[in-house]
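thread: overnight batch results

M.L. [08:02]
morning all. the overnight job finished for the chain we discussed friday. pasting input first so we're all looking at the same thing
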Amino acid sequence: MTNKKLKVSNVPNLRFPGFEGEWETKKLEEIGEIVTGSTPPTNNRSYYEGEYLFVSPVDIQTNRYIEVSKTTLTEKGFKKGRKIKKGSSLFVCIGSTIGKVGQANRDCITNQQINSIVTLENNEDFLFSLLEFYSPKIKALSAEQAVPIINKTTFSNVQVNIPELPEQKKIASFLSLIDERIVTQNKIIKELKSSKHSFIKKIFTRELRFRDNNDKYYPEWHEKRMKDLFTFKVTNSFSREKLNYENGTVKNIHYGDIHTKFQTLFDIKKEIVPYINSNINITKISEDSYCKEGDMIFADASEDLNDVGKSIEIINLNNQRILAGLHTILARPISNIFSIGFCGYLFKSQKVRAQIQKESQGSKVLSISVNRLANLSLSIPCLEEQIKIANLFSSMDLKLNTEKQILQELEKQKKFLLQQMFV
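M.L. [08:03]
and the structure it wrote out:
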């Protein structure tokens, strides 16, 4: 491939040798049939039998492929001609995931939140990459609406630049190589997550046990209530508006970051944590409320049952002063009965998570209180076994993070190539 600095706006920066001339500007409706999906009535179960798969926005995963729901439909679902053939590009056109792009890996139909491009030419892979490139621009067309939406007319009239079919095929063939690598990397990550989940289940149900240096099983675990093992400290309720990422002396852990980005074992050197704004008075906060290594911090509220009570364990503060903030519960071990790094995984175990979910309250927003958290029953192994358990899972997390970084780099490469190869 060669780099060419061309002044013409509809010629890409990066181009394969042998291809010249400007790309042609067309509307999306001129390069394929635009199909808006529909959702069949759920009260007629006969619709959910047959050979075709029904796809909704949650089924569309990253990059070239989609994971379709198990729901299948009969030919009754296609009376309006909304069948999508294998290889077609799918674009989420409404809601929080608007702009998400997928490619059908088999014949299907989609719900009404998806616009599809069904091409008659043998250029499905190119159109998928084209739609990925234009997705941010298409998404921007919905910016001024209360509920983001791209209707069929707007979507159909989006103008794009495309080359002749031979160049399309060359580009698609090249990009498919990195797509395949991304798909493989996603599978590696998925398998590692599954393996970790399996080990957590087996270890905390005692199906899998560690042995000591004499090749003997460690002693039986003992059951205790959380209130007998932890004390609960005061947290603050500072909103995002009172935090910043530029400067300050004290950092603050917001419950939203526990839900979205912090690792199970919280190391301040590896996390980006906001400061409390300098104009906020924190002089009345007691020293006992500042986080210490070994502390557990729980997010006490969530709209999702699977996330209520989600937690992190503080394993390294690097002398940084940190407070637990809005919608968090700060729990500190009473004595040295825990090895650093063990509790982070203890509270991820199925037994403990089931208790937290059972103790949570609410309808739209679920929450768990200190009193309910204090009643959890915890199974505690000896310190030596705790260390082995923590080391096992921390090594698995390290491997997972490495593979995720590889995936991020691949996605950056893909984004760069799209920017250079399309106009």
